[in-house]
């Protein structure tokens, strides 16, 4: 056991926020908190960060973290945190505050809302690829691909999940992936502008969390799925924009961050140092050398498995 964060993303209810792959209800969230309280000491974000920087964290001390600036977190998880008097880290990407419809979340919503099961989406995705000039390249790359060895640190991914992420991040990469997905959205007549106020928190929501004692941190501006593939300058633009927008909202500069999709490299570390970020989180429990920017986190899905609950 070692000090770490617990990572949360999506929440669902029976009314506004749809059920999707990996999403949990507030009831399940409360069960997770109860389990964690029995097995660990949950510290509020300020205390956890202070102890982390002073290197005085005990092995059983954890914190709760929320990635991606999602409205479902504010409307469903935040009231539960109030009930248990827990202050958390909230890692926020900021492009929605500039009126941009961030594709990562749009595409996830599309997968959840328009398909009964995730594998149904995957089948449709590959059917669309077959109509593109990328088809032969994708098929060739998958000939000797072993999904079991890809993203092996994330045990909750199925082989189908790993194949999709390999095709998305390593073969197509952002520009061509966006072409495929945007053609799918057009074919399914998805009304993008209706999603703007449904998916992300507002500036007012973020400010409230900050005033209430939660820690708001960086998560890049546009949430690239592979930050490590970007140049130093492009990474600096991502995180500097993120920092400037959040600083304007909060009235002070954020000092913590988490790595989107667990993707980063030495350039990322240099960027964070130049921006005077004090602490960063990974998205798994692997031990790493740049400890101050690589504190481990355990996904809530792994906690559910430990609890004997279906993921």
UniProtKB/TrEMBL annotation:
Compartment(s) where it occurs, according to its Swiss-Prot or TrEMBL record: Secreted
PROSITE patterns named in the record: NODB (PS51677)
Domain NodB homology: 60-311
Keyword annotations of the record: Carbohydrate metabolism, Glycosidase, Hydrolase, Polysaccharide degradation, Signal, Xylan degradation
Stretches that traverse the bilayer: none
Domain of life: Bacteria
GO cellular component: extracellular region
Residue ranges of coiled coil: none
Gene3D superfamilies: Glycoside hydrolase/deacetylase (3.20.20.370)
GO MF, one example: hydrolase activity, acting on carbon-nitrogen (but not peptide) bonds
InterPro entries: Glyco_hydro/deAcase_b/a-brl, NODB_dom, Polysacch_Deacetylase
Pfam family, one: Polysacc_deac_1
Primary location recorded for the protein, binned into one broad class: secreted
Any single biological process term in GO: xylan catabolic process
Stored PANTHER family: POLY-BETA-1,6-N-ACETYL-D-GLUCOSAMINE N-DEACETYLASE (PTHR34216:SF3), PTHR34216
UniProt protein name: Predicted xylanase/chitin deacetylase
Species whose genome carries this gene: Paenibacillus uliginis N3/975
């Amino acid at each position: 056991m070692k000090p770490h964060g617990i990572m949360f993303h999506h929440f669902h209810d029976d009314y506004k926020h749809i059920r999707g792959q990996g999403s949990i209800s507030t009831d399940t969230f409360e069960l997770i908190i109860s389990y964690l309280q029995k097995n660990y000491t949950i510290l509020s974000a300020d205390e956890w960060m202070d102890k982390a920087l002073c290197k005085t964290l005990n092995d059983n001390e954890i914190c709760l973290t929320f990635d991606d600036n999602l409205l479902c977190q504010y409307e469903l998880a935040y009231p539960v945190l109030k009930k248990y008097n827990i202050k958390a880290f909230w890692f926020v990407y900021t492009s929605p505050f500039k009126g941009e419809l961030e594709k990562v979340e749009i595409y996830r919503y599309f997968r959840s809302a328009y398909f009964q099961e995730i594998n149904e989406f995957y089948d449709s995705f590959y059917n669309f690829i077959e109509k593109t000039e990328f088809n032969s390249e994708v098929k060739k790359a998958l000939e000797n691909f072993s999904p079991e060895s890809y993203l092996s640190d994330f045990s909750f991914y199925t082989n189908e999940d790993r194949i999709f992420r390999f095709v998305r991040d390593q073969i197509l990469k952002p520009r061509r992936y966006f072409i495929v997905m945007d053609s799918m959205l057009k074919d399914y007549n998805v009304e993008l502008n209706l999603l703007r106020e449904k998916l992300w928190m507002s500036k007012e929501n973020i400010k409230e969390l900050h005033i209430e004692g939660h820690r708001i941190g960086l998560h890049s501006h546009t949430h690239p799925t592979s930050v490590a593939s970007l140049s130093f300058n492009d990474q600096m633009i991502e995180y500097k924009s993120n920092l400037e927008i959040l600083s304007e909202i909060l009235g002070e500069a954020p000092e913590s961050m988490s790595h989107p999709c667990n993707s980063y490299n030495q350039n990322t570390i240099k960027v964070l140092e130049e921006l005077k970020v004090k602490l960063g989180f990974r998205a798994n429990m692997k031990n790493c050398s740049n400890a101050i920017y690589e504190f481990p986190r355990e996904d809530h899905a792994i906690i559910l498995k430990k609890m004997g609950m279906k993921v």
